[in-house]
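Good morning C.,

I know you're traveling, so I'll keep this short. The sequence:
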Amino acid sequence: MQNSRQSRREFLRNMGIGLAAAMVPGCASIAGKASKKPNFVIIFTDDQGYQDVGCFGSPLIKTPNLDKMAKEGTRFTDFYSANSVCTPSRASLMTGCYPPRVSIYNVIFPYADWGLNPKEITVAELLKTQGYATACIGKWHLGHKPELLPTRQGFDYYYGIPYSNDMHINPEMKLAENIKLREGVSVESIKKDKPKQNWVPLMENEEIVEYPCDQRTLTKRSTEKGLKFIADNKNKPFFLYVPYTMPHIPLFVSDDFNGKSKRGLYGDVIEEIDWGVGQIFKKLKALGLDDNTMVIFASDNGPWLQMKENGGCALPLRGGKFQTYEGGMRVPCIMRWPGKIPAKQVCGELCSTIDILPTFAQLAGYDVPADRIIDGKNIWPLISGQANAKSPHDDFYYYRAEVLEAIRSGRWKLRKVKENIELYDLKNDISEKNNLAEKKPELVKLLLAKMKAFDKELNNSKRPAGKIK
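The tokens, ready to paste straight into the viewer:
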């Protein structure tokens, strides 16, 4: 693992030589000097449905800060996560690749010995080569072994739960000397007792600092850590990644938000996250950083519908988490950057989490790695509202684990699960109710051929996951 990290650092250093500056506002050279690089903030929620934001149509959940973000920025109606479950969706965000491209297929559990390969180049690592401070505050879920933690994948600082909050501790994980133990737990009991479900470790950098984590205050504490990071790095460019642990179940909120929402506990959780978004914007404005900071809000995948009142809503989309229907992978997305991203705009062009790495690279004056396939594209023309800008993707592919189940090509979506074939016109049938497969056999044949060709190419060029011996 040490050799792989060294070779990766050498590659990144070499990549930094002779790169052209990104020709976008705020990043081009001015009077022979490079202007200040933009800051980046990604707020990434867990299992939040397409409708679970006020400006996306929620009838009961109040999200005034996200709604204001949309009024001051752009709302993306056709924005996709690259998977419908946690770990693969996060791998795509970090690497700019479809999850199978980097051999991340399934969810990582506490006894797993694998995760995102340290040889992969994350968006955090790209930005660090340009002098960025980086922090991951929230749910990581790309490997909890020391060699796979955020601090080994480009982040200067990490604070959060290393995997889903319904899991349990791995007794082999490193405990901090000043660890805060709760619920009658001792160091000895961690080592010898059977781990309890929903009792998860809270980590800071590479050590467990609290066990079990008090999840009632987790959203608030994560927000506060993010605010401190912004303040500490106000004089240099920074990348703050805030993957909030919720609304993944079990649901928890602080006393300030308990019982406040008309949507029950699930709504309380979303409204506390919305409060956190508001606090981040307040801090940016107070420090004079607002006009130089791009903020993205999105969810990692669709809602866990089986949780009923404790799960979210994807309407008017069909399906949710675990599925390749639209509700599983099309997620709410808002982007804001005053003066750079148009206000009160709605973008209906197809784009995805895989596009964030190449877009950030462009904005920071960098290039994407040339030694590997990156599936994402630079979507700055869409984000900045350039006239007649179109999606750079001719096609978008929906994987479930290793299996390619669907393709979107323009307005058309074909879904093939085993022998069942469905064809939908998403322009006129966003809810995927009217299967047109029998009426358009030639289009079905064309899209099936595209799926087969892409899947073959991906499997011939995919890269291994990181496995700890």
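Safe travels,
E.
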